[in-house]
């Protein structure tokens, strides 16, 4: 059912954790299942994502796509990171079962939410970035493991 790459990233997820004083943090929830993901970005003064971490309270596909998404954004600039779609993440994982495609959206949305947070904090505009719809604001978020 799952590709070897999905199983690899699920059983050995990369970049799990959090970044203190991150440049941008995005927390999103998946309306279909209630799962939650948070992504932390460390962006240097040149706009390069030099570190990224994630925490996911979600299914195996959500863990695997978050892990792969963090690998894909690391070292990219913010514009390049914005172009990384859930489809690109799924392709990098050699696909997901159809019923698990929605899980891959969490990673894309969490990256966008973290980029939005970064842009807001620094008072900059990232072309093509829209305000995240599903960002969970402080106060209503739940504990993420
Ligand atoms: Fe919720 Fe996969 S079932 S993210």
TrEMBL record:
Superkingdom field: Bacteria
Entry-linked CDD domains: IscU_like
Pfam families with a match to the protein in the record: NifU_N (PF01592)
GO molecular function per UniProt: iron ion binding; iron-sulfur cluster binding
Domain NIF system FeS cluster assembly NifU N-terminal, chain residue ranges per copy: 1-123
InterPro entries linked to this entry: NIF_FeS_clus_asmbl_NifU-like, NIF_FeS_clus_asmbl_NifU_N
Listed GO biological process terms: iron-sulfur cluster assembly
Protein name: Fe-S cluster assembly scaffold protein NifU
Organism: Anaerocolumna sedimenticola
Gene: nifU
